[in-house]
Design goal:
Length: about 220
């Protein structure tokens, strides 16, 4: 069974991801459009099951290959998102579906609390707080993953300080053999990720400066 999962890992991942999104859409349709609340729970459970399946899939691939591949990294990111910010995003999606389906049916499916939350989502200060939180978590995850990758690399912990001082050299050189990373794949992924983190930080900071200029 594990060999089948490893051989068709991307296919299994795509199937699980598509099933997850379909489950969410069917959950909303059954719950709010057709008023089948009990049946809708099955699709919510399916979504959770697909997320767990992706986590198990990444674990199986890692155990079989013995290396941290781009596939396992991508799966880990997806699962971490689903278990953290995905929860709040699901609630936003749920409110959006209730709003749209309610308009279609000519009914008000939103509660006063829902409307208050939707109002706060449009508040610039609330947007800034959320961006700051998301960016902070993103940076912490990035740093934690780097510690893990560096611990798997050829550079001993006692020499990490030197690697940090020389980061400009080995990063710009684009040669993983000069870096603390164990493979070219990991080095490439982390290089791109670092750029994304920098962009994320700049984007979040822009909200802060924009809000400050308005006040």
């Amino acid at each position: 069974m594990s060999s089948i999962l490893v051989s068709y890992q991307w296919e299994w991942f795509i199937i699980a991801e598509i099933s997850s999104w379909l489950s969410l859409l069917l959950f909303g349709a059954l719950r709010y459009l057709w008023q089948r609340k009990n049946a809708s729970i099955l699709f919510l459970i399916t979504f959770i099951g697909m997320t767990l399946f992706q986590a198990v899939l990444a674990l199986v691939v890692y155990r079989e290959t013995g290396e941290v591949s781009p596939f396992t990294i991508i799966i880990t990111i997806f699962v971490l998102y689903a278990c953290t910010f995905g929860i709040s995003d699901f609630r936003r999606l749920d409110r959006w579906m209730r709003k749209k389906i309610g308009q279609f049916r000519g009914q008000d499916l939103l509660t006063p609390r829902d409307r208050e939350r939707m109002r706060k989502q449009r508040d610039p200060r609330q947007i800034m707080r959320k961006d700051f939180l998301v960016t902070s978590v993103h940076v912490l995850i990035f740093l934690s993953v780097q510690v893990f990758f560096w611990s798997q690399g050829p550079v001993p912990v006692s020499s990490w300080g030197e690697s940090l001082r020389d980061i400009g050299e080995w990063f710009s050189a684009g040669d993983y053999e000069q870096s603390p990373y164990a493979s070219e794949t990991v080095f490439a992924i982390c290089s791109v990720w670092l750029i994304v983190v920098v962009i994320d930080v700049i984007y979040s900071a822009s909200h802060l400066f924009s809000l400050g200029s308005r006040s």
